[in-house]
Specification:
Shape: rod-shaped
Number of helices: 9
Number of strands: 0
Distance between the termini: 118 Å
Helix content: over 70%
CATH architecture of the domain at 16-145: Alpha Horseshoe
CATH topology of the domain at 16-145: Serine Threonine Protein Phosphatase 5, Tetratricopeptide repeat
Structural class: mainly alpha
Order of helices and strands: HHHHHHHHH
CATH superfamily of the domain at 16-145: Tetratricopeptide repeat domain
Radius of gyration: 41 Å
Amino acid sequence: MKRFLTISAFVFTSTALFAQAENTALRKGNQLYKKGKVTEAEAEFTKAVQQNPANPTAHFNLGNAQFRKNAFADAEKDFANSVANNPNNAGLQQKALYNQGVSLSKQKKLLESIDAYKKALRLNNADEDTRVNLQKALEELRKQQQSQQQPKDQPQQQQKDKQPKPEPKTNKKRLEQQLKSLQQKEQEIQEKVQQNKSRSGSQPEKDW
């Protein structure tokens, strides 16, 4: 899955005379980003955003840098700002929506990511990465909904398992029969003891 897009193609969008300072920051940020110096690049892109908050490219590039630092919530906001400030450039808008969708997926905001992917596909229905990511998000959402439904039935099942199981009737009858047999034997022994006592008491004394 493609997690972020290159930013070199989207550095210069404003006129040099009107936005020389922000273009300089974008150029420096782009060079640092290519070298893997993401933190320094993020600082330059932040400068560009501060110099022109309505620059969609500055927001897009800043979002990419933040994504590389796993700051997905911040990246999501800057990609959204890139879309909001870019009503005319469909190409950049589609890529920003795609990146926004990936950032949302990373935060497990599946409904929002699905919406972003759908909007990106409306701008470019031939983008295979967006289509694949949309399918994955839909599948993950389906699994999440299924797992949320299962725990509702589990407590009832656990309660059933905790209830004592009735003893089989055959075992109960067998125990009753054994108990009766023991009682009868005990009674017979007591009767024999009583008989022995009565016999010993009735015998005549020996004549020595």
